[in-house]
Amino acid sequence: MTPLRFLIARILRNEPMLASLSLPQDELLAALSGKHVALIGNARALAETEHGAAIDAADLVIRINLAPMPSAKSHGSRTDWLALATRLGQADRSRIAPRRILWMSHKRKRLDWQSASSPGFYLHPLTDYLSLKDRLGAPPTTGAMMIELLLRSELASLTLYGFDFFASQSLSGRRTADQVPHDFTSEADWVAALAEADPRLKLVR
What we know:
Organism: Paracoccus zhejiangensis
Strand order of the largest sheet: 5-4-3-2-1-6-7
Membrane topology: Single-pass membrane protein
CATH class: Alpha Beta
Helix content: 25-40%
Structural class: alpha/beta
Number of helices: 10
Pfam families: Glyco_transf_29
InterPro entries: Glyco_trans_29, GT29-like_sf
Strand content: 5-15%
Subcellular location: Endomembrane system; Membrane
């Protein structure tokens, strides 16, 4: 696909055409088989920890959106996959340097050509977004969508760092919980239930 055809597909909301740029979901999930995965949220409280070495020791490190990394000691330094729901400027793209970009947002108008044409690009299906939205009773965060997606695979373990469901707010901005469209109580309860039912899932406080 050319950049012009991509822009037309995005303007016209031509989902099949945009989806043609994506790695099939089953191939993405197959790449996770047997892997120990670290999913890094953007809670401010993570900056006060020393989890960096454990994060970098994972087989696969996945970060979210602008992926602030104030210190390798707390956050690690590697990014294998980047789960996006916002535009990524060139400075952040170079800083994060992900090997694969996953576009998780239902807002396709934010998707840029550089991300969509990058190696191994993945576009999360709208049906999956809507299903999780119904389950949570509110628009899911990028982190929630990733947890749901990753646990569908045959990964060995999924460890969550930097997830406190907005108790310490986000390193990515100054908004409070009532200024964003998510239901963090619902997400916290949902993740707790998942962790109880699936021993592969661990939430590191």
